[in-house]
Structure formats: structure tokens, C-alpha cells
Amino acid sequence: MSNAAPPQIDPAALAESLARREALTVLDVRTDAEWPIEAPGAKHVHLPADRVMADPAGTAAGLDGPVAVVCNRGHTAEAVAAVLRAEGADAQVLEGGMRGWLAALQARPVELGIDGVEVLQVQRPGRGCLAYVIAAGGEAVVVDPAPDAAFFAALADGLGARITQVFDTHLHADHLSGARALAELTGATLRLSEGALERGVAYAERVVPLADGERIELGPVTLTAVALPGHTTDMTGLRIGERAVITGDSLFADGIARPDLQRGDRDGALTMGRRLHRTLRERLLSLPGDVVVLPGHAHPGVHAEAVAPSLDEVRAAVPELALEDPDRFALELLAEMPPRPANYEAIIGVNSGTHPFDPELESGGNSCSTRA
Question: Do residues 52 and 83 both lie within one domain?
Fold first, then answer.
């Protein structure tokens, strides 16, 4: 039996393998696998480490093809993979475990049919967060970047573009923003909506406010800021010409933003829900049905392509959008509400600059939609 450490697989490499639907088994050896690695068609086995160690031969016999062993941080998985390899299984360790998986990023092209404009959707399969790189004329605008600034800088470089502006659609409550780090790394202008500055950020002197209706010329396309209050008062989207709209945390491919994070009391949440109803009807649903919706979140998991439905497709998937009465709309949103995001107050503190940056604050998938 070899004493060599079992091989490891990088989280991003695992995500790509799953996206390609390669023959691979994800063996989750955590005791609690509440937030599993998800991918269409992937084979998942949840078997706590102590049960594997009690019968490694039996476990190995039941596993097909390559096996990615997953634990919280990659340590327990090493021991499990070692005993499985001793039994002949092609087992490898997910590097960093689920903590590494939460940081994995995948870039997916968004085809908008605008000559000279390239759009990448950056997905975080472990959290369901979506960011965007819009490049044209040698410049790029990045929207809602994850904390890995080097990843986004490399993407822009690959597009032959220099990042000139970095924009957060709002003060995020369920994940840490990488906007400040990316602006610092690249020298780009840091943008937040005027509403975000009114909520209060400790780094306001570094921000150039983005007003509702402001236009950003990027090569052959105009980006237009669109105030979308409801999820939060500062929520602001970005139209890409007349072809697409980045909706942030207001409208998703199959759901609607929750209205209770900024004002947590029931009366406040109902008020925000009614405001969101007006926003959706007046500012998004009034757009042509073939406009591409680019949301700020999708269900956690691996997506082989960009999450980019048409507005008509979103209408068909979200029945609440047909509700005309704002009170009923708000009540139905609150009735569907999942638990609030873990550590959301501290995460808002990090993103507003009043709390130290701490990656440990992030856990599990996002929960900014009214649908779990």
C-alpha cells in the first residue's frame, strides 16, 4: 500500500467536469450534507466518513469510475480517499473541500448578438451567485464581482480589455463583494448607486455614485443604470443597449427577490414588497418580451451554459408576476420566504466597510430569492 497522498482535484476543474457530464461520482463524506454539490446528471453518494472507514472495500465496490471525495475542508477526505485507493478505487480529494467549492468560479459566454460586445457571466456554483464582465472597445465593466479579483482581471485580459469600472448592484446581504478589491487591483472606478451611499458606506470617498438613468458608453453599446428598489432601497440594474438587462437581486430566472432584509419587521417587509411590485411592473415587465434577463443569482449548482432567459420565459416561470394587486403580491412573497441568509448582518457590514473581511462568513447557497 502506497503512503503517497491521494491526488487532488481543483474545485474549478471539478465544476467543468460536472458541466461536461463526465462519468464521475461525487462522494460526500460530511456528516451533514445540507448544501451538496449539485450538477445535472451527476452521480452523488452521501456516506459519512466513519461508515466509509468501517467498510472501505464495500464502499469501493459500489463506486463507479473516478470519485471526487468531498468533506468540509479537504482533510477528512484525504484519509477516506487513501483507504478507497487501497481498495482499487480511483479516488481523489476535492481541494479545500466545500470551503474551496464555495470559491470556485466558472465563466460562461452570453450571446446577445451585439457586434463588438462580449459578455461573460461568472458563476459561483457553490453559492449560486452570478457576476458579469461586459467588454467592448478595449474596455470592460464588471458587475457584482466575487472576491477573487485576479480571476476577473484575467478574464478581462483574455478579452483584450482593461477594466475601467466596477459596479455593485446593491449592498449584498448573502455574499461578500469583490468590487473594492477588483477596483484597487485594476485601478478601475468603483461605482455604487446613490441609494447605496445613502445607506452608508465607510469607503464613500472611493466611490463615484451611479444615478438612475446614467449612461455609460462602452464601445458600440450604451449601458444604462436602472433603479430597481424593492429587495433593497439601493438595488440598481444595468441595461445593455436594448438587448439585455442585469437585474441584480430583483428578478431571477424562476423567482423574485425577497423584500425583508433591509427592513426586517413585517410592516417594513410589506412596504418593500409593494415597492418591489411597482418596480417590476414599471421598470422590468414593461420591457419587450425578448429582452434577455441576466439575474444576480441562480440556483446553486453547476450550469453548463449562462443563465440568461428571455423576459417572456421568466414571466412563464414566475406566476407571481401576474399578480396585479400589490398587497396580495407582497403577502404572497412573505408567505414563501426561506430563512434569512446566514450571517447576513455581518456580510452587509463587510460590504459597507464597517466589518473586517472574513471569508468564513459565507456558507451554503444564496437565499435572496423568495423561493428556497
Answer: yes
CATH number of the domain that 295 lies in?
3.60.15.10
Counted domains in the chain? 2
Q: By the 8 A CB rule, do 166 and 188 touch?
A: yes
Domain boundary among 101, 123, 153: 101
List, for residues 104-140, the tens digit of each pLDDT value. Answer: 999 999 999 999 999 999 999 999 999 999 999 999 9
Comparing 264 with 314, the larger pLDDT belongs to 314
Q: Reply yes or no on whether the pLDDT at 151 is more than 80.
A: yes
What are the cell numbers at 281? 411592473
Q: Are 95 and 8 in contact (CB under 8 A)?
A: yes
For the chain, percent of residues with pLDDT exceeding 70: 98
Domain boundary among 78, 101, 124: 101
Do 187 and 204 belong together in one domain? yes
The verdict on 90 and 128 lying in the same domain is no
Looking at residue 371, its pLDDT comes to 62
Mean pLDDT is lowest, of 189-193, 199-203, 365-369, for: 365-369
Are residues 93 and 123 both part of a single domain?
A: no
- Contact, 368 vs 249, CB < 8 A? yes
105 in Cβ contact with 117 (< 8 Å): no
Asked whether residue 1 carries a pLDDT value surpassing 60, the answer given is: no
Q: What global pTM score does this model have?
A: 0.95
Given a cut of 80, whether residue 285 has pLDDT beyond it is yes
Q: How far apart are CA 362 and CA 172, in angstroms?
A: 12
Positive or negative, the CA dihedral 162, 164, 169, 170 is positive
Q: Are residues 95 and 126 in the same domain?
A: no
Domain extent for 278: 108-361
Separation of CA 118 from chain center: 20
The verdict on 164 and 258 lying in the same domain is yes
The three-class DSSP label of residue 287 is coil
Mention every residue, 6+ apart, whose C-beta is less than 8 A from residue 360.
none
Whole-number Å distance between alpha carbons of 121 and 143: 10
* Region class of 213: left (phi > 0), else alpha (psi between -120 and 50), else beta: left
